Amino acid sequence: MIRIIGIDPGLAQTGYGIIEAAGSTIRCLEFGTIETKPHVPTGERLRTLYDALCLVLKRFNPAESGIESLYFAKNSATAFPVAQAKGVVLLAMEQNGITVREYPPQALKQAIVGNGKAEKSQVQALVKLILGLAEIPEPDHASDALAAAICHYHHRAVM
């Protein structure tokens, strides 16, 4: 069994999802978001993200991570804050000895749905199905993080 953490980085909300997998069996251990408040200075928000993520890493001790890479076709104004959050995520992974691989949104969609142009709702429905969850993981950042973890699990065999 291998534990993998998936991450959907963001300054306001960073989604995370922890899976445990072996062979064709993949199960969800936990998912959620780490949220920061917009009125707080950026440095403090990044520290909040780092501290909360390190707690998740210590609790679950994942060996590897799949992270959704940055994509800003629709809103380039969010590029800098998301990039800052991603940097904090990468630092936390490195300091905890976790192997990281990044995947663009199209690769996540391809790995989950079989179509790199799938709708977000399709990805969410299949994440629910693959993991045998009773409900679609909410919020969507958590669902995206679980998709990143599943994608990494499928791709690690060819690494």
Written overview of the protein:
The protein is α/β, with parallel strands linked by helices and 159 residues long. It has a single domain, classed as Nucleotidyltransferase, domain 5 (2-Layer Sandwich), CATH 3.30.420.10. Helix content is 47%, strand content 24%. It is built from five helices and five strands; from the N terminus they run E-E-E-H-E-H-E-H-H-H. Strands 3-2-1-4-5 form a five-stranded mixed β-sheet. Strand 2 and strand 3 form a beta hairpin. Helix 3 packs across helix 4. The mean pLDDT is 92.
Oligomer: single chain
Examine the secondary-structure arrangement and name the CATH architecture.
2-Layer Sandwich
CATH topology: Nucleotidyltransferase, domain 5
Strand content: 15-25%
Mean pLDDT: 92
Q: Can you list the strand order of the major beta sheet? A: 3-2-1-4-5
Which CATH class applies here? Alpha Beta
Question: What's the number of helices?
Answer: 5
- Extract low-pLDDT stretches: none
Q: Order of SSEs, N→C?
A: EEEHEHEHHH
Number of strands: 5
Secondary-structure map with pairings?
Elements: E1 2-8, E2 13-22, E3 25-35, H1 42-60, E4 64-68, H2 79-95, E5 99-103, H3 105-113, H4 120-131, H5 140-156
Parallel strand pairs: 1-4, 4-5
Antiparallel strand pairs: 1-2, 2-3
Helix pairs in contact: 1-2, 3-4, 3-5, 4-5
Quickly describe the structure.
The protein has 159 residues and is of the alpha/beta class. The protein has helices spanning 42-60, 79-95, 105-113, 120-131, 140-156, and strands at residues 2-8, 13-22, 25-35, 64-68, 99-103. Helices cover 47% and strands 24% of the residues.
